[in-house]
Amino acid sequence: MSATLTPTPPTPKPRPTPSKRASTALPRPPALNIDPSALIAQHASLAGPHPILVAANVVLHPHAKISSVHGKVLLGEGVCVAERAVVGVQGGPEVGASIGGVTPPTAGVVVGNGVVIETGAVVEAEEVGEGTVVEGGVRVGRGCDIGRFCTITAASVIPPDTEIPDFTVVYGNGLRRVDTTLKERTDLQEMRLVMHAKQIEVYKKLIPNNVGKWMG
Amino acid sequence: MALPFPYTYYSCDCFDSAAAVPTAKRASHPPPADDEDERTFDPRNPRSNYALYPLEHLLYCEDCRQIRCPRCVLEETLNWFCPSCLFEVPSSMIKSEGNRCTRNCYNCPVCTSSMTVSSLEPPKHPSNDDTGGLAGPFFLCCPYCHWSTLDIGIEFEKHTGITQQLARIKNGGQVVPSLKEREKAREKRHEARDGLAAAREDISVELSDAADPPAQEDVFSNLSSFYKSQLSLGASSHPFSPHHDINFSSPSSFSRIMNLYSSASSKKQKRDKPPPMREASSVAEGLAIHTSSSDHAAIQDLKLRGWDHTLTYSQKNNQLDQSVRFASELRPSPTLLCTKRGKRCRACRHILSKPEPKITSTRYKIKLLASNHIPRLSIRALSASLPLPTVPSSAAQGFDYSHLQPSATIHFLLTVSNPLFEPVRITLATPSTTMGKVKSKVTILCPQFDVGANTDVWDEALSSTPARRGGPSDSSSANSTQVEAGKIWERGRNWTSIILEVVPGIIEQHRGLTFGGDQKYRDDDGLVEDEDVLEIPIFVRIEYESDVAVEDRAPGTESTRPGGKEKREEAFWSVLGVGKIKPLQ
Ligand SMILES: [Zn+2]
Ligand SMILES: [Zn+2]
Ligand SMILES: [Zn+2]
Ligand SMILES: [Zn+2]
């Protein structure tokens, strides 16, 4: 299941999603930069020709998928990516319209410190701010800009190029409100980050680390 | 009619026989009154909408031997419980405390999901990893939309008894004086006011020192205590009572009239002129005065914090105090309690369904379902059933129920399955043409037949496997042309199927053509709603022999052979919805 980075952009196909079968055989490119304190579980996959940066204390659960096929991916400190969650711009009709056989790189995905991406979520956003929680099954479209300490509640869909200001809670059927509690209480923000750090420590005890495989 | 075609509805005649029900306690033979027998059930009758139910919605009273629909059962509340903490609340407490949870259960005023108690204390260092870190101030927090009581400036000292703590804190954190303290303050003010010359001055005094208007509960408690004092004291002790507001619409004169009828005081008060009651005239007495300053404050609030700060209609509606307008006025709403209910027969009061009293259990102690007592009628097109017996979804196979070809003979397979442990003789009857504008011909090819008893499934599987599909397998292998009058189509352990021959009527599309004699439809341009739906009313009569119920049959009441078998008979109307007729081109 574990895939390595492909050295060349994939050949243009009608659906240019990276084929795992093809990429497993390919060597890892030098653009993969992983902090040794990161926790990368078995079966987590990092793939794509563009750079991937994994900062300190990042946790990638089994079957989490980081894809830089269409642009770079930067995971900030303490980012947690849960099972079957996908981070990275996905292949789509617009991106698939490649010029001269080379897919033009997008702005990629930058995930801020302490962001939690829960089970099955797909994050293609350009930027996700610090301390934000993206709950299970959420789809964040390409080019979105998610602020700091936001909460995107489960199964929400954020259409592409949406800007979501800091401390926003997206809930219900596209309803939004400002998380006034968190916004006005810096102590609660700190508490959230502290709790998150504790959570990561627990993960490190529970999940066998496979980071060595990716360190080269 | 929400079910997809084809469907079967059962008719409960409780409305029509409502007059007969109280006397019919012992009538084991359901007496479909004499004229009832002759009258054909009309599924088009608007009233029929309220009598037709799918079999799954019906209960059965074993005493009355009749179907019981939601209209002819009585519901009784067995117990109250909180859906959030699953604690039972005694009904005496419901009367005193109301229908909301008084423990720690609250719903988010923004999104209605249930709230959790969280601690504000920063987490300790990982050295003590135990869960006993219950210190520091607490707050209620919505895990979904992240609204919390910190938004309205409320923190709690303890993590239990939230209701009591919340009752003492206003939004913003000020402590609300307890009821006793308020009583005392009110009395003090009363004394002070009695010293004053005029009530009018009193208002202005109160207004000037009341910076913020009192909460709604305060207004209510003030007003109710004022009225109580008015009722008990009488007017003589109130020298300032205004006499000008006595008219028949004022509440004071209403309660005065009510007083006339109350036995205790009527005699005395008839002699003197009934003391007029005055209205509340100060804030302490519950007078709520509209002030323009509160309006200004609201407008200021709107200007300052915008539309997002206001509440939606449903948020407002979920609040205990429904006069709130802004997000800063929200209060967490205590969880509404739920009930567990039992159902009784309206005629004989026997219990038809009763859930287990334990709150956490979803099972039933008693549940008398109609599907265990009444044969199930299911219908499908014969042509649909034939081609592929391997395909499970045979019902929809190649047959379009919503486009029935008019004036073409269609065969339907009507399967009657028997839930009883005795073999049953079924007699079916239907009018030869359906009612309404579109006349469809219906023929039951075999109106009388037997259905086997509902014996153990294993009996059948072990013994008579080959005998089961005798007739049908021949016919299905050959063709569907073997439809014969007077013969059943197929028979199984506890079911029998017969053929129903239907010739859908022709829908008259245009006015001016041959309309039926029905005056009602004369002026209609096109079809009346659902006129093209073909529903066949079928009268079902069941006869069977069963053991005499010991506790039930007193000698002499029925034609019983002691200790032996008893002939029973039941009858009801059902409606088969077979499809929609295609309009003629
Ligand atoms: Zn009924
Ligand atoms: Zn409760
Ligand atoms: Zn909420
Ligand atoms: Zn009954």
Side-by-side strand order of the widest sheet of chain A = 2-5-8-11-14-17-20-21
CATH superfamily of chain A: Hexapeptide repeat proteins
Number of helices of chain A: 5
Largest sheet geometry of chain B: 6 strands, antiparallel
- Strands of the widest sheet of chain B, in order across it, are 2-1-22-21-16-18
Q: What share of the residues of chain B lie within helices?
A: 10-25%
Indicate the low-confidence ranges of chain B by residue numbers. Answer: 18-34, 126-130, 197-211, 235-246, 385-396, 465-480, 512-525, 553-561
Structural category of chain B is alpha+beta
Kindly report the CATH topology of chain A: UDP N-Acetylglucosamine Acyltransferase, domain 1
Q: From the coordinates shown, what is the CATH architecture of chain A?
A: 3 Solenoid
Oligomeric composition of the shown chains: heterodimer
Radius of gyration of chain A equals: 17 Å
Residues in helix, % of chain A: 10-25%
Note the overall shape of chain A. globular
Please state roughly what percent of the residues of chain B sit in beta strands, choosing from under 5%, 5-15%, 15-25%, 25-35%, 35-45% or over 45%: 15-25%
Net shape of chain B: elongated
